[in-house]
Structure formats: C-alpha cells, structure tokens
Amino acid sequence: MINTILCIILAILMISIGGKRGIKSFISLCLNFILLIFTFYLIACGFNSVIVTLLGTIMFSYFILFYVNGRNIKTKISFVSVIIVLILLTFFISLITYISKISGFGEESLEEINMFSYNVNINMTNITVSLILISLIGAIVDASIAISSALYEVYENNPNLNRYELFISGMNIGKSILGTTTNTLLFAYLAEFMTLIVWFNGLNSSFSYIINSKVFASEFIKIILVNIGSITIIPITAILTANKLKNTKE
Amino acid sequence: MSKFSIQRKDIVIFTIILILSTISLVFVNNNFKFYTSTIVKINSIEEEKIDPITEPNILGIEEDYYLQKITGTIMNGKDKGKIISLENERSTSNVVDEKYKKGDYVFVSGNDITGLKRDVYIIIVIVIFIFLLFIIGKFKGLLSIVSVVFNTIIFCIGIKLYTNGLNIILLILIESIIFTIISLILTNGVNKNTLSAIISVIASMLVLSIMILLIAGITKYKNVNFNGMSFLTVPPEAIFTAELLIGGLGAIMDVCITITSSIKELIDKDNNIETRALIKSSRNIGKDIMGTMINVLFFTYLSGCLPIFVLSLRNGVSLTNYIQANFSLELTRFLVGSIGIVLAIPISSLISIKFYKRGDAR
C-alpha cells in the first residue's frame, strides 16, 4: 500500500523533472528490479552465489552503462574498470567475510527467522559476499562513469596533456566525488543502524559486547567494504581512461 | 591543474596514521585483560559428523551436522593460561552457528562458546580504509572520516535523548540540520557555496518530511511487515519513519552539493549568464545525476534482503508471497530516498540560482 503510493509519486516526479530521460531511468529501474529478483532467485536455487552475483553485477553495469548512458568510449572504459574492481574486491571481501565470521543471522534476527528451518544447505559465507558485492555495484558504477566522463571532457579541452597528467587529473576528479559518496552511503547505513542502536540501548549492552557482536560487526564491516570499493574504482578508472584516451588518438 | 606532488605535510600525516594504526592493531591483539568475559584461544579442533538434531525442512532439504571438539588456552581472568575443552555444534550452512578454526579467539561463558572476538577485524578494515582514503583523497579524504565520526556521535546522543522520552521525529529533524551543517562544512569548506547547499538541503528535507509524515499518517503503515524490526521492544513505526528521514538526508545532501557546485561553476565561467540558461543547464545536470544516484540507493538498500530471501525460498515460501510480504521495508527506504533525490534537484537549482543572482545584483 505505502510502497504503491511512494512508487507512483516517484514515477510522477521522475517524469515531470527528468522528461524523456526520467521515463528511461524509471524503466531501467524496473528492469533492474526484475534482474535483481532473478539474481536472488538463482542464488536461492543453490547455484554458487558468488559466481551468480559476479555475472549478475556485470549484467547490471552493462545495462546501466550501455542502455542508460549510451555505448561510447567513456562507458566502455567504465565497464572494464568496474569488472576489474569487482574481481579484485571479490577476493578481498571473501577473505574478510571468512575470517570475521559475519555471515548468517545474529541473535537479533532469531525472532524473525524462527518460523523457518535452518536446514537450507547453502553456504551462508558466500551469501554475505554476494550481498556486499551487490550493495556496492551502484556506487562503483556511479563513481566510474563520473570520472571517465569528466576526464574525457578535460582531454577534449586540453589534448596536449600527457598520460601522467591525465591520470593526476582523473585522481583529482575522483577526490572531489569521494566525500559526497562516502556521505550518501554513511547516511543510508545510519538509517539501517538506527534500529540496532535503539535495540542495544534498550538492552544496556556494553561497548565491548556491541563491537564483538555479529550483527554490529557485520553491518560495520559491510559499510567499510562498500566504501573501500568506491575508493578502489577511482585510480583504476583514472589509469584506464588516461591510457585509452592517449592510445586511441596516437 | 593541481599537481600530485608529495609534500612534507603529507609525509607527517602518513607517519601519524602509520603509528596510530600499528598501536591500535597491537592493542586489539593483546587487549584480553580489558574484557570481563573469558576469552579462549583455540589450539586444536577435532571434528566428527553427528546425526542431525533437526528434521529435514519442508522442501526435504537436509544438511550435515558436525561436533567440533575444541581445546584452547584461557587468555584472561583468574584462570589465565589454563587449558580448556569446549564443544561446538555446527551445520554446513552456518545459518545460526559458526565453524571455528584453529587460531580463533572466542568468548566463553561456562563451557559454551558465545561468539567470536571480532574487534580485531573491525580495526583491520578501518586501518585499510583509512590508508586507502589517505592515499587517494589526501587530507581532504581524512576530513570525511572526521565528519563520519562527528555525525555518529551526535546520532548516538540523539538516541540517548530519545530513550529519555524525546519525540523521535522532532529529534531527527533537528539532528538533520546539525548533520547537514557539519558534513557540508567539512567536505566543502566555509563559503557561499556551502551556505547555499545547506539552505537547499534544509528546504528539501522539509518538503520530504511533510510528505512522509502525511503518507505515514494516511496509510498508518497498513500491511507493512515489520518482522525485520521485531526484536525492538518499542513500537517500530515511529523509529521507521525516523529512519526513512535519515536515509533520505544523505541522498539529498549529495544532490544539493552537486547541483550547487555546478551552478557556481557555470556562473564563474560566464558572469553574465542568463537566469533562463542557468535553469536549463541545471535541469540537464539534474537529469544526468538522477538515474545513477537512484541506482546507488537501489543496490545499497535492496541487497540487504538477500539472506532472508534465500532462507525463505529454501523453506518453501513462493516468490510472489515473499515479494508481497518481505520486500516492503527495504523497498520503502529505497523509494523515500529516491523521492528525496528527485525532489532535491529542482529545489536546490532554484535556491542556488536565486542565491547567486541576488548576490551579484548587490
């Protein structure tokens, strides 16, 4: 009910403010939703969730970059950068998730899940890795396209810049978007944290109990990993764009 | 174009970070005596398969259960140094249990393992994050950490006030203004641009809050499944509304900074630019950022449904039932955030154009 109302409001706002592109963005959002459910469904069927997620996120970025932003040199570079970062991060995220045991459900969810049997025969560590990869894909695609487009503009205006100068310029652009991205993600997570903080507060939990608990550690580590992802994309996009722009014109 | 040269200031900051990181890593690996609960280091594990304690589930899915026989050394308290034997039952999925391994540090109460000591991993990811942030963002990158820390502290103070009886919606609205001022000044500096962005954020938040409160009042969250918040002892509705507002705030700030800086760029490049041209450009910028920013929120929020989705579907819940019953909370968060993004585009464009144009006339 509430979601239907909100969805209609969002559609009206997107179309009235974004015009044709608003319609396109809204359609792509709906398609993303279907693709997301499909990815979730495949994971629930028992396929290796990390592989399904990698393929799924590559599909998402293909779709966001080439359908929404158009196929050109900028989006192609972004696509390659996103894939490289995804693969690098998969290893890193798997390692951290494995050693810190943040997968599965913490004690706060027991009430929510007690109607289910826990015999599901699926690797929960992989599920957590998938969750983190999916939650960062939007942020890294956003950062990557912002850098490659801005750097392309810089190059068009100053074609004499060499590879190193272009790279530095790309890093500077990355720096300027870093703060706002971190900020958006922070508040999105603070919102989810709120329930937890109210809960811990009601239980009068000690600080040491909170930071060692699975639910806090998993939320916290997830936030940091997503932020690490949106930092790693910066130098990789900058290097690839600088290289590609120089190579194609020579 | 600014150069990327390494300055003395950077070397000093880098050294400070390096020293602080080393100290915290050493501390967190040796802080056993600060804990009141017993900590055990696992020395060896023998594992044997046991008969499942539970029945196969509704779809007939079974899994293997194991008993881990653990020997470990007590690290703190009056029994420090003694060897202790523990047992831990685990399944292959680890939905609610853990598979421990040699070298893990665990909390023990009586003869039961209550959980892993996770503070080490929290510090490890923070250290990696700070190094990356400094390498890429230099000093300015670190400022965003300062902003995060400040905001979190204010947030926690707010929750304390809430438990003392303050209205949470009012509290969040006041906190939003404080968050906005701190974050924008730290990431953007003290200047006209920041002031314009702050006004835009507050105006957009006002519109969004009125809208949310109206919709929440009319629908009274009918049919919304608050299972995901069932562990709270207080009514979830008010807290959820407050969460919606906080989630929207981050997105609104991002939009307002982007739009305000772009309009400033346009005016800086061409001082005589007409208001009509400015409006047109800001509309274009808005269209550019709208789609990708909504995507960021989409994945950030909806990914959180994955574990419960998998658990439900593997317990025989059908896809349509799941979507109807369980997606609601995350979907609502996402929709409110996105509405915030779209609303903030015209509001911040209008305010910053008014702001700069009036400033020029004087």
List its traits.
heterodimer, A: mainly alpha, Multidrug efflux transporter AcrB transmembrane fold, 2 domains, 8 helices, globular, B: OB fold (Dihydrolipoamide Acetyltransferase, E2P), 5-stranded antiparallel beta sheet, 9 helices, 63% helix, 12% strand
Please summarize what this structure is.
The complex is a heterodimer of chains A (250) and B (362). With 250 residues, chain A is mainly α.
Question: Can you walk through the features of this model?
Answer:
The complex is a heterodimer of chains A (250) and B (362). Chain A has 250 residues and is mostly helical. Chain A has 2 domains: 1-37, no CATH class; 46-249, Up-down Bundle (Multidrug efflux transporter AcrB transmembrane fold). Chain A has helices spanning 2-45, 49-68, 73-100, 110-113, 124-157, 163-203, 207-212, 214-249. In chain A, helix 2 runs parallel beside helix 5, helix 3 runs antiparallel to helix 8 (214-249) and helix 5 (124-157) runs parallel beside helix 8 (214-249). Chain B is α+β, with helices and mostly antiparallel strands and 362 residues long. Chain B folds into 2 domains: 33-117, Beta Barrel (OB fold (Dihydrolipoamide Acetyltransferase, E2P)); 167-361, Multidrug efflux transporter AcrB transmembrane fold (Up-down Bundle). In chain B, 63% of the residues lie in helices and 12% in strands. Chain B has a 5-stranded antiparallel sheet, with no helix packed on it. The longest helix of chain B has 45 residues, at 119-163. The mean pLDDT of chain B is 85. At the A-B interface, helix 1, helix 2, helix 3, helix 4 and helix 5 of A face helix 2, helix 3, helix 4, helix 5 and helix 6 of B.
Describe the protein's topology.
The complex is a heterodimer of chains A (250) and B (362).
Chain A: H1 2-45, H2 49-68, H3 73-100, H4 110-113, H5 124-157, H6 163-203, H7 207-212, H8 214-249
Helix pairs in contact in A: 1-2, 2-3, 2-5, 3-5, 3-8, 5-6, 5-8, 6-8
Chain B: H1 8-29, E1 38-50, E2 65-74, E3 83-91, E4 105-109, E5 112-116, H2 119-163, H3 168-188, H4 192-219, H5 236-269, H6 275-302, H7 306-313, H8 319-326, H9 328-361
Antiparallel strand pairs in B: 1-2, 1-4, 2-3, 4-5
